[in-house]
Design goal:
With about 45 residues, this protein is mainly α. The chain has a domain of about 30 residues. About 50% of the residues lie in helices and about 0% in strands. The chain has two helices and no strands. The mean pLDDT is about 90.
Length: about 45
C-alpha cells in the first residue's frame, strides 16, 4: 500500500500522534513520555 492508494487515510494518519507503548518500556521511558505529553497538552490549553 502506498500513499497514492489511500490519500485521505494517509493525510489523516499524519495528523494523529503516535506514542511509544510496548511491554519492555522502562519506568524512565514511561515517565519521559508522560512528561512530554503533559508539556504539549499544557502548551495548547486554551
Amino acid at each position: 500500500m502506498t500513499a497514492d492508494t489511500a490519500p485521505i487515510a494517509t493525510a489523516v494518519s499524519n495528523l494523529i500522534p503516535s506514542l511509544p507503548l510496548y511491554p519492555a518500556m522502562s519506568r524512565t521511558d514511561i515517565d519521559d513520555t508522560a512528561a512530554a505529553v503533559r508539556k504539549i497538552a499544557t502548551a495548547y490549553q486554551r
